[in-house]
Amino acid sequence: MGAQAMLKTLLYTVNSLLQQRRYRAALAVLKGFRNGAVYGAKIRAPHALVMTFLFKSGRYKH
């Protein structure tokens, strides 16, 4: 069996598992976690970094 046929079979199997209703809650949890991580990395982390430099008080100590 070639690599392309194996990949196609794997994708078909994964898609059929993801479409089953009993996995909907677990997939929603995973999707929420992923979306939260992406939001944190794109928006919250840079914002926190900028605010730290803008509003820091005192001197920087090692």
Task: Describe the model.
This protein has 62 residues and is mostly helical. Helix content is 77%, strand content 0%. It has two helices and no strands. It has helices at residues 3-18, 24-55. The longest helix is centred in the middle third of the chain and has 32 residues, at 24-55. It is elongated and about 65 Å long. This is Glycerol kinase. GO terms for molecular function: kinase activity. One of its GO terms (cellular component) is peroxisomal membrane. Keywords: Kinase, Transferase.
TL;DR?
This is Glycerol kinase. This protein is mostly helical.
List keywords for this structure.
kinase activity, Glycerol kinase, 2 helices, mainly alpha, kinase, elongated, 62 residues, single chain
Give the topology, please.
Blueprint: H1 3-18, H2 24-55
Summarize the biggest pleated sheet: none
- Which consecutive residue ranges, at least 5 long each, have pLDDT under 50? none
Count, helices? 2
Shape: elongated
Helix content: over 70%
Structural class: mainly alpha
* Residue share in β-strands: under 5%
Distance between the termini: 60 Å
Elements, N to C (H/E): HH
Query: What would the average pLDDT be, to the nearest integer?
Result: 88
**Secondary structure tally: strands:** 0
Provide the gyration radius in Å: 22 Å
GO cellular component, one term: peroxisomal membrane
Organism: Platysternon megacephalum (big-headed turtle)
GO molecular function: kinase activity
Keywords: Kinase, Transferase
